[in-house]
Write a sequence for this structure.
């Protein structure tokens, strides 16, 4: 058969777009997350992201507007994921002390298991959180965890388990700080002190220390 007689093959990118638009969007976000985590917002290239997906650079811009819009969508997705996991814990069904300990342990585990989330938050802080500020979705998402903590804390105070006078935001910041630091500073602590906070024999101790610290804060 002559080259001119060769039947046309369906375009893989077009086929993926028409058959599974949500899957294409998901693929873009996954590839973008890897690119942004590795290179930051400034160093990431949309061409590289498109090359790793079943779509085109033009389609990425169609979905997200520009590189900063894509970056913001990745951050929104990452915050949405941790908030969804938190909601699945069913903390309202537990006694308040058990609920707070479970939330702290979960938060610690989530950060340890998802270092990309920590890295993206660090990158966003370099940019003075301007993309968080421009996202109404993230503001709404993150208020939900404060409401959850406030409810647990109020129940604990009412039952005489927690001391009064603590703000829900302060509890959240303490839980987040203990969990975040164990990932964000792992390399520097290993280099300075020769101590690997992520080692299998160390991680459980760090996790329990986080829970103990939060519970001590609430009780004393």
């Amino acid at each position: 058969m002559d080259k001119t007689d060769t039947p046309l093959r369906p375009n893989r990118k077009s086929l993926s777009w028409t058959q599974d638009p949500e899957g294409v969007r998901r693929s873009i976000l996954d590839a973008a997350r890897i690119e942004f985590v590795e290179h930051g917002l400034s160093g990431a290239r949309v061409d590289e992201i498109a090359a790793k997906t079943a779509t085109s650079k033009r389609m990425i811009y169609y979905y997200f507007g520009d590189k900063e819009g894509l970056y913001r969508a990745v951050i929104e997705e990452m915050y949405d994921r941790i908030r969804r996991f938190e909601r699945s814990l069913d903390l309202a069904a537990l006694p308040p002390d058990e609920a707070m300990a479970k939330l702290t342990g979960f938060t610690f585990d989530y950060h340890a298991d998802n270092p990309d989330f920590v890295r993206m938050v660090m990158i966003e802080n370099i940019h003075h959180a301007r993309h968080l500020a421009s996202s109404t979705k993230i503001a709404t998402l993150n208020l939900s965890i404060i409401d959850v903590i406030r409810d647990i804390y109020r129940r604990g105070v009412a039952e005489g388990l927690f001391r009064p006078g603590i703000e829900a935001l302060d509890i959240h910041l303490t839980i987040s700080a203990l969990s975040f630091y164990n990932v964000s500073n792992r390399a520097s602590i290993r280099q300075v002190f020769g101590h690997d906070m992520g080692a299998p024999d160390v991680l459980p101790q760090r996790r329990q220390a986080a829970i103990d610290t939060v519970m001590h804060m609430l009780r004393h």
Q: What stands out?
A: The longest helix spans residues 21-43. The mean pLDDT is 90. The two ends are 84 Å apart (CA to CA).
